[in-house]
Please model this.
Amino acid sequence: AGYEISMDDYELAWRRAAQSARRDAEALGEVSLEGWYRLIFSSLGLGEYGPELVQKVNNAWNEAFAKGTKALPWTKSVLRRLRPRYGLGIVSNSLAPNTIFDLRVAGILDYFETIVISSDLGRRKPHPLIFLAALEKMGLEPKQAVFVGDNPYEDILGAKNVGMRAVLITHPLVVARARLR
Model:
């Protein structure tokens, strides 16, 4: 069946889904990709749909933002210098397929040996589980790792709470991007 939904209706449904998905903030729970679209579609009054609709809408979302997805100017040169000497990983509060898509579009996916994403794990930073999962995948103890992030609460506090060292990036471009989230 065909659906006609305005961008305003979709945006409103998206905002409602974001509020609903964050209601369990104390538990730092995270919604899966399917759960995210279930929240959006139910807000739009779509009762029955298949996984192909989730995939189609999510692909459209990713494609719409692909042109604006770029690594910060210094990212590739820093990763090229770090990669031969250190294991690199990502811990992200996001929807896994979208993050992988963004990393691929930005041309930096292959720099990372480990990627742990909240939608796959069911927990968001600063929950300890997401940091510990990344450390386990990399075969590291917390004191052997340094976490670099742009959010004092989610990244720095979360990493320190599991015993990792942490570095806060405060460059104006990073701060501006963090405000857009």
